[in-house]
Amino acid sequence: MMLTIYIDFKSPASYLAFEPTLLLAEKTGIPLHWRPFSSRPFFVPELQSDESVGERHRRVRAIAQRNMHLHYANVQGQQMKFADQPAESELALAALATMDGDPVPYMRTAFAAYWHDQANLNDENCVADMLRANGKDVPDFDTACDRLAAIRMEARESGVFEAPAYHIADQLFLGREHLPWITALITAEQGA
Prior knowledge:
The chain has helices at residues 12-28, 53-76, 90-97, 104-117, 124-133, 141-157, 179-191; strands at 3-7, 32-36, 165-168, 171-174. The chain is α+β, with helices and mostly antiparallel strands. The chain has a four-stranded mixed sheet, with helices on both faces.
C-alpha cells in the first residue's frame, strides 16, 4: 500500500497538510508518493463599493478561510503570510514532476519560500536556486512543464480538482481534514 498525495506549493491547505502527512508516514511506515497538482491561487477579493451579495459572500468567505488557515498555522507553530497578489507555482511544481530521489527537502524549501517570503515559484532563477540549494539538478523546464501537464490531466481524470488530495487503496480524499480517516484506513489495513 502507498499513499499518493497531490500538492501545490501555493495552496494554503497543502502547506498546512505537509508536515502532518510526513508525521502520518513516520507513524505508520506507509510510503509516500508526492505528485504536483496546480490549483487556483487563494486570494481575498478587495472590498468594492458596489459589490453584489454574491461578491460580498465570496469576500467574507475568503477572509474566514484565510483566518482559519492562519489559526491552524499558529497551532502547528508554522509561519504563514498571505501575499496581497498571490504568485504562481508552475515551475516549482514542474521541477517536482521530474525530480529523482527524496523530494521532501526541496518541498520544504518551496513551501517556505512561498509562505514565508512570498517568492514567485514560477520564476526560473528562483526555482533553480531552490533546486541547487537542495542538491537537485535543474531540469529542462519545457520538458518538466509537459510532465506536469500530463500529471494534471491524469489527476483530473481520477477526480482530483484541488490540493491537497490523497489517493490510497482506490479511494480519493480531497483536503487535509481527512488525515485522521486516512490514518485509520492505513492502520486497519496494516492490522488485517
